[in-house]
Write a structure and sequence with these properties.
The two termini are about 35 Å apart. The chain is α/β, with parallel strands linked by helices. The protein is about 35% helix and about 20% strand. The structure holds zinc ion.
Length: about 250
C-alpha cells in the first residue's frame, strides 16, 4: 500500500468514524484539475480555428463542478491561462491527492489537409476520433495513476464514448482496451507528487468531433463520466456510509 493511499484511507476513515457523510466531509480526497496549455501557447488549433486551450478550459471547469457535486474539494489549476511553466502545474497541485490534466488531441503535421472555413485557410483530419489517457512511470504512484485512468476509460466507454487508438502507434499501452498509454516524459505527470493522469478528450482537427467537443451537453456528459470514474477509483475499497454499524444491528 502506498503512502498516498494510506493517507487518503486515514482521512476518509476519520470522516467515517466521526459519522460524517464522506461526500460532504472536508477530509475527502482533494483533486487538482489542470487546464492544459496557456493563453500565450494555446496548443493546437481546431479545424474551425479555435484554440486547444479554449476547449481545455470548458471541459476542466465542467469537470471541476462535477467533482465538487460528488463532494470532492477541487483545485482548478491555470484557469487564467497564465501559469509560468509545466513544472508549476504539479507544484500548484501540491497537497492534493490526485491530479488530472485536461487536454484535447491533434494529429501530426503530415496528416493535415487544407480547407477553408468562413474565409479562413485552416487544416483538418477526419481519420481519427476519440479520447485517450496517459500515465507516467516516473510518477511516484504509477499503479494508482493507471487504475484511475482505466476506470475513467471504462466508465466513458460504458457511456458510449469511443476511444482513439491513434496514439498506440507511438505510445505503449498500459491498458489497451481503455486506451491508456505510457508517456513517461510528460512533465506534468512526472513532476507530480501524487498520482496523475493526462486526459485527451478528443481530436479537435476532426471536423465532426470538434463540434461534439464544443457541445455543452456532451461536455457535461463526459465530465460526469470522468468524475464518476475518479470517485470510484479514489473511494475504491472504502466502506459505504453506515456499513460499520450494519453488522451490529440486532
Ligand atoms: Zn494539449
Amino acid at each position: 500500500m502506498t503512502k498516498w493511499w494510506r493517507e487518503v484511507r486515514r482521512r476518509l476513515g476519520v470522516a467515517a468514524a466521526a459519522g460524517l457523510c464522506v461526500a460532504s466531509s472536508p477530509g475527502a480526497a482533494a483533486l487538482a484539475v489542470d487546464v492544459g496549455h496557456t493563453l500565450a501557447a494555446p496548443g493546437a488549433t481546431s479545424a474551425r480555428g479555435r484554440s486547444e486551450f479554449a476547449f481545455n478550459l470548458d471541459l476542466a471547469r465542467t469537470l471541476a463542478r462535477a467533482l465538487e457535486d460528488r463532494g470532492f474539494p477541487v483545485r482548478l489549476i491555470n484557469e487564467d491561462g497564465l501559469i509560468a511553466s509545466l513544472q508549476a502545474r504539479p507544484q500548484a497541485a501540491s497537497g492534493t491527492d490526485f491530479l488530472i490534466s485536461v487536454h484535447h488531441d491533434s494529429v501530426s503535421e503530415h496528416e493535415l489537409r487544407p480547407w477553408e472555413w468562413e474565409g479562413q485557410a485552416l487544416n483538418y483530419n477526419d481519420d481519427f476520433a476519440g479520447h485517450s489517457l496517459f500515465v507516467s512511470r516516473d510518477n511516484p504512484d504509477t499503479a494508482r495513476s493507471i487504475l484511475c485512468a482505466r476506470i475513467i476509460g471504462a466508465r466513458l466507454q460504458r457511456m458510449g464514448f469511443v476511444p482513439t487508438h491513434k496514439n498506440g502507434r507511438r505510445r505503449a499501452y498500459a491498458d489497451t482496451q481503455h486506451a491508456v498509454h505510457y508517456y513517461d516524459g510528460l512533465a506534468v505527470l512526472r513532476h507530480a507528487r501524487m498520482p496523475a493522469v493526462l486526459f485527451e478528450a478528443g481530436i479537435i482537427k476532426n471536423r465532426d468531433e470538434e463540434l461534439l467537443l464544443r457541445d455543452e451537453a456532451r461536455i457535461r456528459l463526459m465530465a460526469d463520466g470522468i468524475a464518476t470514474g475518479l470517485a470510484a477509483c479514489l473511494r475504491n475499497g472504502l466502506p459505504a456510509d453506515g456499513e460499520a454499524e450494519a453488522d451490529a444491528r440486532p
